[in-house]
Amino acid sequence: MKLTINRLLLIILIAAYIILSIAVKRIFVSGLIDWYTIWILASLIVVNAALLSSGGIDRISFTILQNFNNKRTFFLFSVVLTLLLSMFLTNDVALLVLVPITVSIGKFSREDVDDVIIFQAIAANVGSMLMPFGNPQNIIIYRESVRNFVLFLKVMFPPFLISSFLLLIIIMLLKTGDFKNKLDEAPYVNMYLFIPNFVLLLIIILAFLLGWPYYIFTLSISISIISMLLNEPSNLSKVDVGLILTFILIFYDVNLAREILRITIPRNAIDIYVYSLILSQFISNVPTTVLFGKVANWPALAYGVDIGGNGTLVASLANLIAFRNMRVKDILRFTKFSFLFLFITSIIGALLLMIL
């Protein structure tokens, strides 16, 4: 089995779990995992796997490709769409939905779309910062420190707007070409798999926005799994169970480590911002958010972990999702764009924080 970055991260988290369990002499400590967030993410991951298996994503890819001859236009369209969807589906899930479409378009057109995927990752991190439900770290911050939708939107709108504008400028400066090769025949779609799971996707989004109970997500997962079993059982292998386990272990390991080590969290806004941004580059922004917990100056933490989602591959799980779908796994190619964006937006974030 090939050791990917995703698997390496999971192995590290499992090793941390073992070490921490030995330290506290307990296999499990309750109250450390945000199960509601886990169920939301798990249901979206399962349903999206079914949608991918149905062929519906390939059909959408084919349709989009037929309407874009210019690669720059497609580039802009895909990034803006990612930006918008990540506000509501979370950055990770938006990429789970849209990156396979980009990959399929690359396959159909026989064009290199790795740069598109890289900027989709950046766009997902940018778009998700605006809404309290845009990404896991915002959900945590909102629940812990804010609980005021208008206030959250007001604070996060300036970095979102400036970052979005910067992203579009960079894309316009990139060299692109035209799509040369297309398929003449539309891919087959299993409607018995696509339609029920598309409906489930809408239900899951609505359930999250309205705060419906756990059983809605459990039911959605069950129906989606049954739909895959009835159509093609091998489709279950496309469900990224490792990613679900990764989220669970992040909550558990980081919260337990914070209790054991009694880590002191800075109180100054700039310190919170700088430390959370830098720490996100090494342990990812969701664990960083869990580590900081409830802070008095929540905008500093939100700016730090959201802007800090760009940079290294591990800075955000969205980055890992994008990277694993690239045709050529070139870390330098990914990080040169992501770090450039991080460098500029980190300065902007600091300036905005000073005038709040």
Descriptive report:
With 356 residues, this protein is an all-alpha fold. It has a domain at 56-188 and 240-355. The chain has 16 helices and no strands. The protein has helices at 5-24, 35-54, 56-66, 71-89, 91-109, 114-127, 136-146, 149-173, 191-210, 214-231, 241-261, 269-283, 285-292, 298-307, 317-324, 331-355. Helix 4 packs antiparallel against helix 5 and helix 5 runs antiparallel to helix 6 (114-127).
Task: Give a topology summary.
Layout: H1 5-24, H2 35-54, H3 56-66, H4 71-89, H5 91-109, H6 114-127, H7 136-146, H8 149-173, H9 191-210, H10 214-231, H11 241-261, H12 269-283, H13 285-292, H14 298-307, H15 317-324, H16 331-355
Helix pairs in contact: 1-11, 2-5, 2-9, 2-10, 2-11, 3-5, 4-5, 4-6, 4-8, 5-6, 5-15, 6-8, 6-15, 6-16, 7-13, 7-14, 8-14, 8-16, 9-10, 11-13, 12-13, 12-14, 12-16, 13-14, 14-16
Number of strands: 0
Structural class: mainly alpha
What is the H-and-E element order?
HHHHHHHHHHHHHHHH
Report helical residue fraction: over 70%
Q: What is the first-to-last residue Cα distance?
A: 49 Å
Strand residue content: under 5%
- Please state the overall shape, judged from the principal axes of the Cα atoms: globular
The chain-level mean pLDDT equals: 85
Characterize the largest beta sheet: strand count, sense, and whether it forms a barrel: none
